[in-house]
Amino acid sequence: MKALRLTADVCVIGAGAGGAVVAAELAEGGADVVVLEQGPRHDEAAFTAHPPQMLARLYRDGGQTVTLGTPPILLPLGRGLGGTTLVNSGTCFRTPPHVLARWEREFGLDGLGEQALAPAFARVEQALSVAEVTPELAGRNAAVARRGAEALGWSHGYLHRNARGCSGSGVCAFGCPTGAKQHTGITYVPRAQAAGARIVTGADVRRIVVAGRRACGVEARVSGAAAGASGPRVGAEAAGGASRRLLVDAPHVVVATGTIHTPLLLGRSDLGAGSGQLGRNLSLHPATAAFALMDEVVDMARGVPQSFFVDEFAAEGILFEGVAGPPSYAAASLPLSGARHAEAMARYRNLAQFGLMVSDSSRGRVRSIGGRPLIRYDLCDADVAKVRSGLERMRQLFEAAGAREVYLPLPPDVEPHAARPRDLKLMAFHPLGTARAHADARHGVVDGDLALHGVEGVHVADGSVVPSALGVNPQLTIMALATRLAFGLLDRAVPTTAEEEAACRS
Has 430 been annotated as catalytic? Predict the structure, then answer.
């Protein structure tokens, strides 16, 4: 069967936090853009809030991606237009200034300081309707944590989120059923299409095509309805059936397939390996959560699940954030068994839950085994100590809030101070670093402008370029860097808010 062929100025691979932003900004800036997305377009009307159903639809591997190491860590990854922004909690932090200072000091990344990135952050925040969660919308689960933090005198606050008209459905991780969460699939992707970008879903990208050390396009396969009868159908969904080869001729390629899959694509394309850093330097921001049995009714799933934070110990690399879910979700993560589990779930309405994340110094690696990612990550002693400390302080937080019982995610009779790595029940949602930025081609995969070292015309715009752990949720960082990249490709500066307002008045 004859290959399908498209021509564009820029081919963007992936439509998550990075790719969707690049596509929209480039298309609105006058570039001819083709976006290739492996996953489907998701219809919010089909978001059922039923966890098993939505895990299968919205996540890679049904949400069961796991790292190999001690301990194993569950690493859920979103799939489809919007990527992981589809299923995250919407929390928006700017990159901490001390992290940006470290990037300049240790990685030679000039031009990424707080003031330099401020216009990009402001532009993204405006596009996503980022605002602080109100106490009313945060719900009673957040009120429990706030009561404990105030009793202990710990620094705390309400989180900023990308939401508009949120009603507190409490199912952010399973697809927002009301369309309130402003993920990139309903913000930047429609903007890109309105500006003329062509979006092809169901596109499995095989390699980036390079000639004479310069990108000249992308080779992919599209299947089912996405292949069409005479050409790839924009926005069509993969629905099985025969696949067809798709070639996109483009002098510029932006890779945005995510921290886990970007090193695999670059490796298949024989790109990015010059420094020996491709696939290495993986940070995860390991997380866990605890429950507490309260006297009062909490109804943890009513309200925004991640709405409140405690940053008293941020300097130690420990950040507490809200987490909550419907009964089926809580039942799967409640660290009890047998009769005790049944008794606690019988009082589900009185359960509170809160999470912690540690800014990790552990580093992992992603490799390709049979075309699929093998993720190796072992928690180092320093990070084990952070988790232990975080769990002990989590207990203090709940007890200060008046908890009757606190259920820590540890085996029976194991206290936090004695917990071994294999005792820890961890998840992670913020993988970063596998194509890290570094000014020196000997030590990084991309440069400070996110251009791939050693070849022209290839840039990377996802979490893989972030060179160090952030200590906070990364979506805003990824999107701000993507914004800066897009305007750089257009040979323009990111406009400030004042410049945008002046342009609107003129």
Answer: yes
